[in-house]
């Protein structure tokens, strides 16, 4: 009975104002935060209040309740479910023995995850030494003892998988591993048959305990460190050069791009109209107040409409820049709602419009298709710009932002800067994003400095962070 | 309706999750355990519920049912782009103010007639207080009405995602403290905190501040069993075998790749149609002719038509009717 019922029964007011349940809840909130849920202090208080109403006894009700308060989107619901299951999953080590003892007491009280069993459990563990517990094979008591030791060892601070052994060691030490090992050694030394057998049983049970501890540490690692490692990895990816990315990171990058785009879109999609302070719109004020004889009860102020930017993107898709182009297109199309319209063009040796392909299928698939169409040939900037002038220059207006992404390396062909000159006169602005570092611009066949005078902005862009900044500037400027 | 109930009755009815479940059922709403838990917790923590989910799963219906079960008045505010304070909270009755000034113009001389100077006249006027900016001239809109309801109310803020971001920010004061500030009058506190439900179809992401103040309930499509219960409660005259076939068919449809999968409300409509047509067994021809009740896009209907025989066959099997 030591495991089950310990928490429910013990009314020890350790937490002060909150119910005794607050300790496991607090630790769960910590786990939820590590899993990536943003739980504010206020929500934590709400959760504690709600748990007071529903109690800990029904796991499904508890899950529903906490889910209502802590998880606010469907993504967060998934995260929450995962964290909840992981945290409140019964320790297998304790469960096996408990099920044998009392099959009815499953999943209910006292099973508050790695830490749940409260003060009394510790007492039962602390009363006997580890050796005695192992010999008596009191698994439930061992499990609580182990959890207590884990808590003392500060298991919730585990962050990296390299710390696994460290924490396992610490827990075992705290449980008194040394003395048990000494006992076993002593038995071996004694040499008689009975002592040897005892030593052997003790040894094998110790092995089981080791496994259990390792398991516990692993579970806590997933629980407390997953969000952290994930975040760390994302930070890393955001500032990694896109051309150096490994294939296995691509999926994660796509998700990241979408997240960043969503954030930008939310920021810039909202204020389309801005009030001009203090300028009365006389005509609309009169109209609005006609109902009460033209006496201006309600004033209407002049407003400024903010145009969404119209964007034309010219992407170099030849070998050197292809990866970057893919991400730029992905980003822009994820931004759809914040832009008025996007027309996209891909070029290498020559230029074609690819808007339609990109609108019909997800960017990931579209890019390979575009590559097939245009070929992986070497780039010819002059030729491509001439294609653009023939086909689409007439659609460029003074509201169009032209984004050109490329390394400006035309393999010593005519750069046709005259076309870019005309383009800069027609368009609102030209922004050139170059994935190469500034130091190599103008070297070899790079025509960057010849194009630069016609561009409003020329900037290095080779990581996701650069991309975000560049696009944010484009949107900002439109406001 | 409200007066008939002794105060405190709603509290008693809300004292356990099961009671909520039964109560909602008595109002004709079959709630899943999550929904009942949400209503229970919302009532005890006095927090608004933000209900999200696809169209037609009963988000609005939930608020209506809670209101009818607790015999509280339901105050509904439909959100749309451009909704502002004057339409959501209160407005001054300008016309009435104007009319009254005209009528009272003659009386003014009798009030200040004998005062010799301007300062005296002003003092006399001041002694009347703010006549024109008082409750009589206030036109309460849904939010204010909900706060002023003496016995409490159910406030339904429908499709909050359609409103502007500014309006969302404006709601925060009401949602967290159940009070609003009216500059001319002062702060109005709720007499009894209303039970607030917000619904959203997630056409845009709501702000974190709003979400933090709410319980978040996601209503998805119900499973087969729950859907059968819902239909049985909404269309009680339906035959049990037919019900099984209907539900099985709709559940299969939801698994297809459609532009808009049928919701519970569409299933209910379809069940009503079937009852009207005195159907007992689904057949392909009948389903084909009534498919437009379930599916709202031509492309979806076409896509489904091709697989109709298989779907109907499976539905009949599930309903225990031989093929």
**Structural class of the helix and strand makeup of chain A?**
alpha/beta
Instruction: Give the beta-strand count of chain B.
Output: 9
How big a fraction of the residues of chain A is strand? Answer: 5-15%
Radius of gyration of chain A: 33 Å
Distance between the termini of chain A: 67 Å
Question: What is the share of helical residues of chain A?
Answer: 55-70%
Largest interface: A-B, 29 and 27 residues
Weakly predicted, low-confidence segments of chain A: 1-20, 91-126
Poorly predicted runs of chain B are: 1-9
**Residues in helices of chain B, as a percent range:** 40-55%
Shape of chain A: elongated
Return the average pLDDT of chain A rounded to an integer.
Answer: 76
Query: Oligomerization state of this entry?
Result: heterodimer
Give the H and E element order of chain A.
Answer: HHHHHHHHHHHHHEHEEHEEHHHEHEHEH
- Decide which structural class fits the backbone of chain B: alpha/beta
Give the arrangement of secondary structure elements.
The complex is a heterodimer of chains A (479) and B (323).
Chain A: H1 6-9, H2 22-34, H3 41-54, H4 59-70, H5 74-88, H6 92-101, H7 119-127, H8 130-136, H9 139-152, H10 164-175, H11 177-190, H12 193-238, H13 250-269, E1 273-280, H14 282-288, E2 301-305, E3 310-316, H15 322-334, E4 341-347, E5 351-353, H16 355-360, H17 363-374, H18 381-391, E6 400-405, H19 417-426, E7 429-434, H20 448-451, E8 457-460, H21 464-478
Parallel strand pairs in A: 3-4, 3-6, 6-7, 7-8
Antiparallel strand pairs in A: 1-2, 4-5
Helix pairs in contact in A: 2-12, 3-4, 6-9, 7-9, 9-10, 9-12, 10-12, 11-12, 13-15, 13-21, 15-21, 18-19
Chain B: H1 9-13, H2 17-26, H3 33-45, E1 49-52, H4 59-70, E2 74-78, H5 85-88, E3 90-92, H6 94-104, H7 108-112, H8 118-126, E4 138-140, H9 142-148, E5 154-158, H10 165-177, E6 179-182, E7 186-189, E8 195-200, H11 208-213, E9 215-218, H12 224-234, H13 240-255, H14 264-276, H15 284-294, H16 298-305, H17 308-318
Parallel strand pairs in B: 1-8, 1-9, 2-5, 5-8
Antiparallel strand pairs in B: 3-4, 6-7
Helix pairs in contact in B: 2-3, 12-13, 12-14, 13-17, 14-15
């Amino acid at each position: 009975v030591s495991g089950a019922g310990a928490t429910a029964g013990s009314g020890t007011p350790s937490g002060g104002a909150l119910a005794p349940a607050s300790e496991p809840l607090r630790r769960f909130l910590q786990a939820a935060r590590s899993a990536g849920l943003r739980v504010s202090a206020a929500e934590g208080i709400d959760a504690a209040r709600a748990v007071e109403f529903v109690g800990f006894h029904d796991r499904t009700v508890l899950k529903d309740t906490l889910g209502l308060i802590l998880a606010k989107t469907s993504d967060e619901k998934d995260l929450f479910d995962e964290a909840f299951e992981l945290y409140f999953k019964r320790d297998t080590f304790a469960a096996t023995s408990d099920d044998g003892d009392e099959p009815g007491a499953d999943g209910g009280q006292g099973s508050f995850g790695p830490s749940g069993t409260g003060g009394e459990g510790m007492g039962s563990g602390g009363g006997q030494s580890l050796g005695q517990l192992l010999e008596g094979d009191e698994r439930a008591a061992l499990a609580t003892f182990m959890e207590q030791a884990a808590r003392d060892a500060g298991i919730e601070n585990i962050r990296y998988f390299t710390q696994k052994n460290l924490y396992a060691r610490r827990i075992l030490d705290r449980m008194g591993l040394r003395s048990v090992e000494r006992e076993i050694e002593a038995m071996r030394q004694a040499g008689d048959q009975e002592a040897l057998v005892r030593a052997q049983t003790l040894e094998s049970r110790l092995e089981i305990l080791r496994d259990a501890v390792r398991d516990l540490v692993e579970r806590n690692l997933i629980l407390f460190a997953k969000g952290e490692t994930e975040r760390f990895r994302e930070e890393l990816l955001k500032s990694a050069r896109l051309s150096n990315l490994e294939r296995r990171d691509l999926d994660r990058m796509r998700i990241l791009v979408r997240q960043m785009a969503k954030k930008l879109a939310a920021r810039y999609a909202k204020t389309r109209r801005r009030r001009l302070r203090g300028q009365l719109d006389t005509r609309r004020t009169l109209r609005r107040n006609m109902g009460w004889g033209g006496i201006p009860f309600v004033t209407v102020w002049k407003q400024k409409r903010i145009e969404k930017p119209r964007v034309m993107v010219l992407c170099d898709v030849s070998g050197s820049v292809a990866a970057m182009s893919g991400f730029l297109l992905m980003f822009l199309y994820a931004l759809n709602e914040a832009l008025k319209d996007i027309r996209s063009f891909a070029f290498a040796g020559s230029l074609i419009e690819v808007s339609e392909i990109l609108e019909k299928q997800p960017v990931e698939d579209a890019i390979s298709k575009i590559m097939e169409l245009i070929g992986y040939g070497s780039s010819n900037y002059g030729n491509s710009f001439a294609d653009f002038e023939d086909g689409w220059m007439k659609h460029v207006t003074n509201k169009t932002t032209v984004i050109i992404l490329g390394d400006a390396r035309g393999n010593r062909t005519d750069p046709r800067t005259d076309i870019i000159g005309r383009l800069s006169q027609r368009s609102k602005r030209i922004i050139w994003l170059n994935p190469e570092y500034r130091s190599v611009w103008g070297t070899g066949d790079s025509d960057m400095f010849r194009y630069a005078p016609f561009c409003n902005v020329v900037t290095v862009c080779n990581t996701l962070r650069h991309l975000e900044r560049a696009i944010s500037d484009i949107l900002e400027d439109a406001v | 309706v409200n007066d008939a109930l002794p105060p405190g009755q709603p509290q008693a009815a809300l004292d356990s999750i099961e009671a909520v479940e039964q109560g909602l059922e008595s109002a004709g709403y079959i709630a899943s355990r999550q929904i009942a838990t949400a209503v229970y917790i919302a009532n005890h923590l006095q927090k608004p519920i933000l209900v999200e989910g696809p169209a037609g799963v009963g988000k609005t219906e939930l608020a209506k049912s809670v209101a009818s079960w607790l015999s509280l008045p339901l105050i509904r505010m439909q959100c749309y782009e451009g909704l502002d304070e004057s339409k959501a909270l209160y407005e001054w009755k300008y016309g009435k103010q104007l009319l009254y000034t005209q009528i009272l113009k003659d009386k003014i001389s009798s009030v200040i007639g004998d005062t010799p100077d301007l300062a005296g006249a002003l003092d006399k006027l001041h002694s009347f207080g703010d006549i024109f900016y008082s409750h009589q001239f206030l036109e309460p809109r849904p939010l204010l009405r909900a706060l002023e309801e003496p016995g409490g109310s159910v406030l339904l803020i429908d499709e909050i995602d359609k409103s502007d971001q500014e309006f969302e920010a404006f709601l925060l004061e009401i949602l967290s403290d159940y009070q609003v500030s009216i500059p001319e009058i002062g702060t109005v506190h709720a007499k009894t905190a209303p039970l607030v439900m917000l619904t959203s179809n997630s056409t845009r992401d709501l702000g974190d501040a709003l979400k933090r103040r709410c319980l978040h309930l996601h209503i998805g499509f119900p499973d087969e069993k729950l859907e059968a219960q819902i239909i049985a409660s909404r269309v009680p005259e339906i035959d049990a075998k037919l019900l099984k076939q209907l539900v099985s068919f709709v559940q299969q449809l939801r698994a297809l790749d459609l532009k808009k999968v049928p919701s519970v409300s569409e299933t209910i409509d379809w069940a009503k149609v079937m009852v009207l047509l005195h159907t007992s067994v689904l057949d392909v021809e009948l389903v084909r002719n009534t498919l437009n009740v379930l599916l709202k896009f031509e492309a979806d209907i076409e896509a489904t038509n091709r697989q109709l025989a298989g779907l109907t066959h499976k539905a009949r099997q599930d309903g225990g009717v031989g093929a």
